[in-house]
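Annotators were shown the component list below and the corresponding predicted structure, then asked to write short factual statements about the assembly.
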Amino acid sequence: MTENKLKLDEFRQEVSAWLEGNFPKSLNGKASEIGLGKNVSGRLAEDSDTWRKTLAAQGWGIATWPAEYGGAGLSQKHVQIINEEMDEIGAFNPIPMLAGMGVTMVGPTILEYGTEAQKLRHLPKMASGEIFWCLGYSEPGAGSDLASLTTKAEDKGDHWLINGQKVWTSGADIAQWCGALVRTDPKAKKRSGISFIMFPMDQAGVKTRPVKLISGDSPFCEMFFDNAKAEKNELLGDLNDGWSLGKRLLQHERQSQTGEGGPATGGECLGDIAKRYVGTDEHGTLEDTDLRLRLANHLMDEQAHKLTIRRIMAEAKGNVEVTAVASILKNSATDVAQTRTELLMELMGTQGLGWEGDEYSQDELGNVRMWLGVKAMSIYGGSYEVQKNIISKNILGLPETTQKG
Amino acid sequence: MAALTEEQSMIQHQAQSWVIKHASVQEFRNVRDGESDVEFSPQIWSEMVSMGWAGIIIPEAYGGSDLGYLTFGLILEQAGRQLSASPLFASALVGASAILLGGSESQKKMLLPGIADGSEIVTLALEEGPRHAPKNIDLTADSNADGFTLSGSKTFVCEGMSATSYIVAARTDGKAGSPEGITLFVVPADAEGIKRTKLNTVDSRGYANIEFSQVKVTVGAVLGTVGEGHALLEAILDRARAGIAAEMLGTGSQAFEMTLEYLKTRVQFGQVIGSFQALGHRAAGFYSQKELARSCVEAALQSIDNNDGNIDEMSSLAKCKVGDFLHDMSNELIQIHGGIGMTDEFNAGLYLKRARVLESSYGNQAYHRNRYAQIKGF
Ligand SMILES: Cc1cc2nc3c(=O)[nH]c(=O)nc-3n(C[C@H](O)[C@H](O)[C@H](O)COP(=O)(O)OP(=O)(O)OC[C@H]3O[C@@H](n4cnc5c(N)ncnc54)[C@H](O)[C@@H]3O)c2cc1C
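Structure shown to annotators:
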């Protein structure tokens, strides 16, 4: 055994002991209930707040960040160990969820581009899950073609004045802060006049309107700016350099969406669920042989996806650079999640066609909502097609078309 | 690429440049268009041996370097890229694995040093029908006072014409289809009663049918335990599957790179065809498939090196996922090249033909999807 491996084994034991002593047993396996917008109250709410604070004090909400910004300065290998040990006992890290787009996207970008003052002002409160961030990129006329955005910010000497509209802003109705791409030089070429600005949501100039989704949830909003204000020192990176910074942030977003524990992975093995609904022959083989092989294929794809994440981490010796590889992983995470939920729907039969009511179990209803919810994975964060454009251009070096064929 | 040790990186680079220089597709073409019964160049094989490639998984005590399956996979991948023909896989991986896993001390002493120095070519004689079916063994081994008498036939034996010994899966008990009653034997290729017939296969490689008529062997020829050969056979096959998956990864990766190169150079409608989004997206898809397959192949080889408990699962995963990739990629190789892809003079056809042989070896994708479901308990 190498010295390095020994150290990691020691760390694993420390983590396990720490979790044993600090994770409230009442929260065991309650990750999704503690999630946002769910009404937890009483003991559960108290325990989950205690857990958040304990975890934050340890720096493990986002353990890879430096300690002075609320992290613990650990490598991704260590984080993997923490996650595995948490899984082991039904514990979970609620902080990335509680920080909205903070920990996963705005935070890493501040770390890279922010001033020291900006880092100290914003990062610790993300790392503790106290401040929820939303991200204002998309507009009615600017989706995949984000650079055509028109929301503008004018320099008013002591502040920025923001006017315009965003759409599909996740969590805008509950967010305390927003990071947005805005046009700061209307005369410059499309990509050159854009900046990234941060401002508080609790002000008269910002209005949000929740939009209901096909899954019945309304996790995202339209967002209107009517003379909204941002402090002068809340410009992230250089003026009119928001495009490159903004693209970098999207790489972080992709990265965060490629994890092993995507929205539709984990839980009971699909094969076992299928056996319950579909039935088996005398050898314990699923009766629907066509479904059986598609299930096996899906489980293989899921495993291939996980192994690829591990391989990339191992190759990077624990410090993964956020790169174009994230596009591959984002699409394969999407494939896995969408195929899994489609298979679940298929194997549940008519029990998978309920919307609400006692005739259906919580799991069944949850699966239906999840099936609808993960359709978004191929749309947000750069659509499936846009990821393929990125792979073919940035990784494979294929040129853009110059004329119509 | 897995996180490689310095030694592994060195071997990989050496293999890459040597194969391109000395064992390229052109060399394979020369063998294909030649007259010999043995479908590889003895010269190339002896150079591979002198670089130590035939001893990669063999312990030092038996003349090898004991560098493990992942390292072997790196070499097979490079060979797969150029369709380099040799008994490297059949003997130094499959044959050596069989002896390592099932051999007695004297069998190891007798065969492993020879495999490592190229004087022995030991290959697995398993299949009896057109589809991979490791339990469907009809070739009988009747026990008698002097040992056993083998009668029956084997088909599609890899490097069957050049082999010096066969690992023969025979039935000492039970009926074809049953895992019980299977016994493995090491049988010299020149034993009396053996007749081998060269097969002319689509990939122009060295496969043979072997007939066994009253072939007499001693008790010392038994590999492992009489009647309990099934588990041993599966363990050998899992190593073969992971190893051939590495070769397939190389073949598919080369097909991908040939395609990508053509996308960047072929001009139609006043621009390179790779600028058409329909083709760019397909290339992106294949690239992703390739990377996912690589993760599976390396993980399978590593699971063997670590002697993990899930070698069966990992080798099925690797064989299936790399098989899917190679299947689609070899078709796309032809399609993207247009008319030129259909010509024998161009190499695309060689890759397509080889792809199907590799896919069918040791269980095709359907076989391993089914096996994976079984392993997962549904
Ligand atoms: C659940 C959810 C949450 C979201 N959260 C946020 C958020 O918090 N903040 C935010 O700013 N935005 C958010 N979005 C918006 C998201 O980023 C956009 O939906 C996305 O960028 C796509 O833009 P669009 O919807 O306008 O689709 P369009 O860009 O109009 O795309 C329509 C179709 O055309 C395809 N297409 C477009 N361009 C190309 C091309 N060049 N090549 C090939 N195909 C192409 C697309 O792939 C798609 O299939 C969210 C979206 C969803 C679904």
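Statements collected:
1. The mean pLDDT of chain B is 97.
2. The first strand of chain B starts at residue 122 and ends at 125.
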